[in-house]
Write a structure and sequence with these properties.
It comes from Corynebacterium yonathiae. This is FMN reductase. Keywords: Flavoprotein, FMN, Oxidoreductase. One of its GO terms (molecular function) is oxidoreductase activity. Helix content is about 40%, strand content about 20%. With about 220 residues, the protein is of the alpha/beta class. It has one domain: Flavodoxin domain (Rossmann fold), CATH 3.40.50.360. Strands 1, 2, 3, 4, 5, 6 and 7 form a 7-stranded mixed beta sheet that branches. Helix 1 crosses helix 6 and helix 2 packs across helix 4.
């Protein structure tokens, strides 16, 4: 059973960010199930942590039990879907505060989908100019396909392509969480361990010095 963590920074209830997060989660669960594995979806609504986030940012010694529990859920996740609404051309302040409070290396190697919602498609570049740099800094393993949903695109050809992006990102996340059975494993090796959070280690027994490899050349 894989643990799929959804983090939504939507402020309203219901919110477009949460709806997008649920669509991505269900699509990813379907792709994982197709690989013969189960997926348990866990959701963190960041707005519920607003008070403790403000407390943690201003007083590191103050007790923040709900935030501590959320951090533990991050540590135990095999995959992550992070969705934020767009404010002033970037991710929301609460969204950033949550990730600012995580311990160093908390997201190392964690397979991740980044996604955002906004009223206009003018904000679509948030994926590559705000979210991707943030999660690269946190050393998450961000899938190539991010998902952006603009309210103005609903009912348009662009809105129809949106569904295809969800499917593509879900496949990419599932590929990192569970080893695909319909293709040869790549150089990255088997990702079927804990969320692909594996480190490639070179064995000293198999290490061949450069001088040895170059023997016989140049003579």
């Amino acid at each position: 059973m894989r643990s799929l963590l959804v983090i939504s920074a939507g402020l309203s209830q219901p919110s477009s960010s949460r709806r997008l997060a649920d669509m991505l989660a269900e699509a990813t669960r379907a792709k994982i199930s197709a690989r013969g594995e189960g997926a348990q979806i866990d959701v963190i609504e960041i707005r519920d942590l607003a008070y403790e986030l403000a407390t943690a940012m201003t007083d590191r010694t103050a007790p923040t039990p709900s935030l501590a529990q959320a951090k533990q859920r991050v540590a135990e996740a095999d995959g992550l879907i992070a969705v934020t609404p767009v404010f002033q051309g970037s991710y929301s302040g609460l969204f950033k505060m949550f990730f600012d409070t995580l311990e160093p290396h908390a997201l190392d190697g964690l397979p991740t989908i980044i996604a955002a919602t906004a009223g206009s498609s003018r904000h679509a570049l948030i994926l590559d100019y705000a979210l991707r740099p943030l999660f690269n800094q946190l050393h998450a393993s961000v899938v190539p396909t991010g998902v952006f949903q603009a309210a103005e695109d609903l009912g348009t050809p662009e809105g129809e392509r949106f569904t295809a992006r969800i499917e593509r990102s879900a496949i990419q996340l599932a590929d990192q969480m569970v080893t695909p059975r319909d293709r040869v494993a790549g150089i990255a090796g088997d990702f079927s361990g804990r969320g692909g959070r594996s480190t490639i280690r070179l064995s000293k027994e198999n290490f061949i010095p450069l001088e040895k490899l170059l023997e016989g050349y140049g003579k």
